[in-house]
Specification:
The chain is built from no helices and 23 strands. The chain is mainly β.
């Protein structure tokens, strides 16, 4: 008489073992008053791949990642829903069944695990690529004002006017002041305006 401790992992009938899912179980054979136990480890995937290994997102964005397993017999299958998903930092990105949602600016690593195989997806939320200012040089008279704008291009391709969000400073407020991107000439001299 054969039995399996975990029939979700493997079943046995007449001495023939059939693997059902990845994991470990113990098979027991009983004959008369004697029993023998066999440890069984099932790892059906020989390779695990994600359709993307790096994701650039903005807070609030979501993206679906698909996991494909290659089995010992050479066949492949989508195991996204069967995999165990974790995030290295839920403050920046969360994941459920391969569905990644960006929470806040920062970086996180999403891990998909199926059997003993794992795959990691690097998630970057709100990562800045290039910051561009509308003018490199401006000339002002005393009391004259001119607006500057700052445009941010993020690694996911998003372009956004960040003039109001930027922190503006002047290297010499005696010559020029800046407030919210509006530069005003104060007196003769030079100043460097910085937005960050």
């Amino acid at each position: 008489q054969w039995s399996s401790d975990d029939e979700d992992i493997a079943i046995v009938s007449g001495g023939t073992v059939r693997a059902l899912d990845s994991g470990e179980t113990r098979l027991t054979a009983k004959f008369g008053d004697k029993t023998v136990a066999i440890a069984v480890e099932v790892d059906p995937a020989v390779k695990l791949e994600a359709d993307r290994t790096k994701v650039d997102m903005q807070p609030g964005d979501s993206v679906q990642v698909t996991l494909t397993a290659t089995f010992a017999d050479g066949t492949t299958g989508d195991v996204t829903d069967k995999a165990e998903w974790t995030t290295s930092n839920s403050s920046f990105a969360i994941v459920e069944d391969g569905y990644i949602t960006a929470v806040d600016r920062g970086e996180s690593t999403i891990t998909g695990k199926y059997g003993k195989r794992t795959v990691k997806i690097a998630v970057s939320v709100g990562a800045l690529d290039v910051l561009t200012i509308s003018a490199k040089t401006i000339v002002l008279k005393e009391g004259e004002s001119k607006p500057l704008t700052v445009t941010a291009k993020y690694k996911d391709g998003t372009v956004k006017d960040v003039t109001d969000d930027a922190v503006w400073t002047s290297s010499r407020t005696a010559s020029a002041e800046v407030h919210g991107g509006i530069v005003t000439g104060v007196a003769s001299g030079k100043a460097t305006i910085t937005a960050r």
